[in-house]
Amino acid sequence: MTYLLHGAGGSHAGWNARTDIAALADAHRMLIVCPDGGHTSWYFDSPIDPAYQYETHVAVECVQYIDAYYRTRAERNGRAICGLSMGGHGALFLAIRHRDTFSTSVVLSGGVDIRPFPDNWGIKLRLGPISTHAQHWDEYTVINQAKQLQDTELNIVLDCGRNDFFLGVNRALHLQLLEDGISHLYEEHAGGHNWAYWNAAIARQIPYIAAQFQKAQH
Description:
Layout: E1 2-5, H1 14-18, H2 21-27, E2 32-33, H3 54-69, E3 80-84, H4 86-97, E4 104-108, H5 123-127, H6 134-140, H7 142-145, E5 155-161, H8 167-179, E6 185-189, H9 195-216
């Protein structure tokens, strides 16, 4: 079971409309769920807006519902979470904070450090302005959340385009993980922050996710 998260301004329908994910799911005999994360949730339980509780929605409520109504492997080794851009942030944020729920996190063009972008993509609507709520920004950014990790707790992939505006923060997280001794895969490929890149990236990464599921069964 793979939970596939969309980016800022998108919706649950984007992956199926803009990529070959349905064919990939069939080819790898994989259930895929595309939750809707709102336009600018960043997959947080917002500390300032009770209406935006998307960490709970995706990592708890969606998982419980899917396991109740579909034939899943209802255990962490049977679940991966992947996303693009805002959803890339969400994929690692949720996996770190719910390590008992997810075993694999794949980050595509992820906004893995939100602090360099204080006025973009509605983040301040969920955390408050960085000038007055810096503690929220430090607490909720993935690069700091990753300091909680112990090696081998999660299967982690970072995949980013060389012309992507998030390349710098992905490289910074990669170096931090190396310094902290956290095993992960890091990939840079030609391309930018667009659906052409994400269509190619998901075709690269679904086989990786499927391989982790297979490994966990042996």
